[in-house]
Each structure stands twice: as structure tokens, then as C-alpha cells.
Write a structure and sequence with these properties.
The protein has about 250 residues and is mostly helical. It has ten helices and no strands.
């Protein structure tokens, strides 16, 4: 049992730390569906690889589409427009594009379900090592270079790094898992007036709990993680919030 669970638990520990940081940045900007839009574009690139190139150019296409959406969002963020609505359009563009690309694939729906939430319980150790290197590089840039930047290039750097992160995460865990890991820990920490360390611990707790539940009850791991994370977070935020004055 320990051999099976060790890799997925190590994976979510890494994923939570980096995604919670980006989640805080997304909440501060007030554009909640940014990550979901970028993840959908990354998934669209993956779908094109699967649908038209027999999984060749998988990472290049996934990253290219994620970077395209990141650039569009960064550019839109310095324009006078309804940013949240624009990001919503990008999201539905990516989602509908995936369905169109996979419509003629015999295994289209299986690919689609995998793009939404993968079964990370069977993640190969090699994928964990490669992701750790990528995430380590991103963390270094966020710590050393990003704080010194200003204006449009600061926003572009943030969304570019988010796109690179999402590219790896979507291929490992899926769109919905990425969204939950980005938003849930940061949102709960903010609602409880807690810091980044709390968001890490909270994300680790519900992620590891979900992995254990999926293992013992034979549930799909990705969807279980999404369900547990969304359920616990929505309950916590709802009951910790104040009533709106009329």
C-alpha cells in the first residue's frame, strides 16, 4: 500500500505548495477563473495532440496553448474591458474546442474525462521527478526575479509562470484538480485570515484524505480530490462568512 500511495502523496504535496501561491495571486487580482481558462487552453492543446497527432507534440502543443491564453489575459489585464467576462469567453472557447477536436475520436470521451481529472494514484515516479524540476525552476523565478518586476511585464511573468505550471499540472492531474488546488487552499486561508503556511497545510490535508478515500473505496482519484476539496472548502467558507447587510 505504501509503495502505491507514496508517489501520489508526494505529487500533491508539491502541487499544493505552488498552486496555493498562484491561487493567492489570482484572488488578489479578483479574476477567479483565470486558472480555469488557462487550464482549458492547455487541455485544448493536449486534445489537439491526441486527436490529430496521435499524442505527438503533446507538451509543445499543451504549453503553446497555455502560453497563448496567458498572454491574452495579461494583455487584457492592462486594457479597459470587463476582464472577468473576457476570461469567461476564453474558458468556453477552450472547452468547446476540446469537444470539437475529440468529437471524431473513438476514445474522445475517455480522453475528455482524463483531461478534466486524471487518476493520479498511478502517476509514474519519472513524471514526479520531471515535474519537481519544472516546479522548482518556477519557484526560483517567483522568489528571485518576479518581485523585482513592475507593470505589464510583471503581469505577463505571473501569467506565463502560471501557464507553465498549469501545463504540467493538467497533464498530471487534470483541469478540475488544477482549479481546486489553486482556489480552495487560498480561499479558505483568506476567509480564516490565515497565511500561506495554513493554505499549504489545508491543501495537503484534503488532498491526502482524498487519495486515501479513493484508494480504499476504489473511487477515481482525481474526481475524489476535486469533490473533497470543493466540499470542505465551500462548507468552511460559507459558515465562516458574515451575513450581508441589506
Amino acid at each position: 500500500m505504501i509503495d502505491i500511495l507514496l508517489v501520489p502523496i508526494a505529487l500533491v504535496i508539491i502541487l499544493v505548495m505552488l498552486h496555493a501561491y498562484f491561487g493567492r495571486g489570482i484572488l488578489e487580482r479578483g479574476i477567479i477563473f483565470t486558472d480555469l481558462a488557462i487550464a482549458q487552453f492547455a487541455a485544448l492543446g493536449s486534445a489537439i495532440s491526441l486527436g490529430y497527432f496521435h499524442q505527438e507534440y503533446f507538451y509543445i502543443l499543451t504549453l503553446s496553448f497555455a502560453l497563448l491564453s496567458a498572454f491574452l489575459i495579461a494583455f487584457a489585464s492592462v486594457r479597459e474591458l470587463n476582464l472577468e467576462a473576457f476570461i469567461g469567453l476564453l474558458y468556453v472557447l477552450g472547452a468547446s474546442g476540446i469537444m470539437m477536436v475529440l468529437a471524431h475520436s473513438a476514445e474522445g470521451m475517455e480522453h475528455f474525462k482524463s483531461l478534466l481529472a486524471s487518476d493520479i494514484l498511478f502517476t509514474p515516479p519519472s513524471d514526479l521527478y520531471k515535474s519537481a524540476v519544472i516546479y522548482g525552476f518556477i519557484a526560483f523565478v517567483l522568489y528571485k526575479i518576479y518581485p523585482k518586476m513592475r507593470g505589464f511585464f510583471r503581469e505577463l511573468t505571473f501569467f506565463t509562470l502560471l501557464a507553465i505550471t498549469v501545463t504540467s499540472s493538467v497533464s498530471l492531474a487534470g483541469v478540475l484538480v488544477v482549479f481546486v488546488l489553486l482556489i480552495a487552499p487560498a480561499l479558505v486561508a483568506k476567509s480564516l485570515n490565515k497565511g500561506m503556511i495554513f493554505s499549504f497545510i489545508y491543501g495537503w490535508i484534503f488532498s491526502i484524505l482524498a487519495i486515501l478515500i479513493s484508494y480504499y473505496y476504489d473511487f477515481p482519484t482525481g474526481y475524489t480530490l476535486v469533490f473533497i476539496g470543493a466540499l470542505l472548502s465551500s462548507i468552511t467558507v460559507l459558515f465562516n462568512s458574515n451575513r450581508r447587510l441589506s
